[in-house]
Design brief:
Blueprint lengths: L1 H4 L6 H30 L1 H4 L7 H30 L5 E2 L2 H31 L2 H12 L14 H17 L2 E2 H17 L4 E2 L9 H10 L10 H6 L18 E2 H10 L8
Parallel strand pairs: 1-2, 3-4
Helix pairs in contact: 2-4, 2-8, 4-7, 5-7, 7-8
The structure holds zinc ion (2 copies).
Length: 268
């Protein structure tokens, strides 16, 4: 699909190379800029007690590359099927109208929110956790480099609902591509340990930081709806006394504390 947009031949190998090379380049751009900003240039404001662990960063970068390239192998056939007209992807908004386009975005959102919550819950089952999901959870205090550090089968399973949508109902090409891009950016954003939104319905960075800290809260994708329905929601704004100071940061508190010149990120 990406190969199609770049006017490259619809060959599985070309699709794989586009996904893997483009994916790794995008990872270094997004995670590199995020790490540079939050953990280096503005460390004093956002993570004043953070001490870089080069071995952990190298490990996270290694698993991100393995995850992205491995994932490209797994999703290249899906993109090939999409690119060769075997899905319900359509190219012109006029084909279905704006009303349907909005409806399809809602349907895709509901489907991915539901499936990703339950797939993530399943990945925490002991049968799947050790062989697949443990790789991502080895980083208890994540950084931007952890956002895509996955066993490829783990990231494939969590990304699958986005691809399945394209086969279940008509989906505009741009809805499909934008949703995949947003997931990519979101994955990096929720690992920088700085929350920018306070809304209770958003599965923000603080909530995902708690997912890494406690393991059994906040499994959702973008929202806390399924976590709230299933009793697995935990707010980063109350009752997190066991979490060392500095691990959970918010943009607004970082502003206040950097003015006061305080906090320190305690060790684990
Ligand atoms: Zn998890
Ligand atoms: Zn994570």
């Amino acid at each position: 699909m990406l190969a199609y947009l770049l006017d490259l031949p619809d060959h599985p190998l070309i699709i794989f190379l586009t996904l893997s090379v483009g994916g790794v380049a995008l990872f270094f751009l997004l995670a590199g800029l995020s790490y540079l900003y939050f953990f280096v240039l503005r460390k004093g404001r956002f993570h004043p007690g953070y001490e870089a662990d080069p071995a952990e960063n190298r490990s996270a970068i290694k698993w991100s590359i393995i995850g992205i390239v491995g994932n490209a192998v797994l999703i290249a056939p899906i993109h090939y099927y999409v690119a060769t007209g075997h899905s319900q992807i359509y190219y012109s908004v006029a084909d279905m109208g704006w009303g349907y386009l909005i409806l399809s975005v809602i349907m895709m959102f509901v489907l991915t929110e539901t499936c990703i919550y339950w797939i993530h819950r399943a990945l925490h089952h002991r049968l799947l956790y050790n062989p697949l999901h443990r790789i991502h959870h080895q980083y208890q205090k994540p950084t931007s480099f952890v956002g895509l550090a996955f066993n490829p089968f783990d990231s494939f399973l969590q990304g699958l609902p986005h691809h399945i949508s394209a086969f279940l109902f008509p989906l505009n090409i741009w809805v499909y591509l934008v949703s995949l891009s947003v997931v990519y950016v979101w994955a990096v954003m929720i690992h920088d340990r700085v929350s920018f939104v306070r809304w209770g319905l958003v599965n923000n960075t603080g909530r995902h930081t708690l997912h890494h800290w406690y393991y059994d809260y906040n499994y959702g994708q973008y929202t806390t709806i399924w976590d709230r329905l299933c009793g697995t929601h935990k707010s980063p704004f109350e009752g997190c006394e066991e979490v060392p100071e500095g691990v959970l940061r918010t943009a607004w508190l970082a502003e206040e504390s950097s003015a006061a010149g305080t906090p320190v990120e305690a060790g684990t």
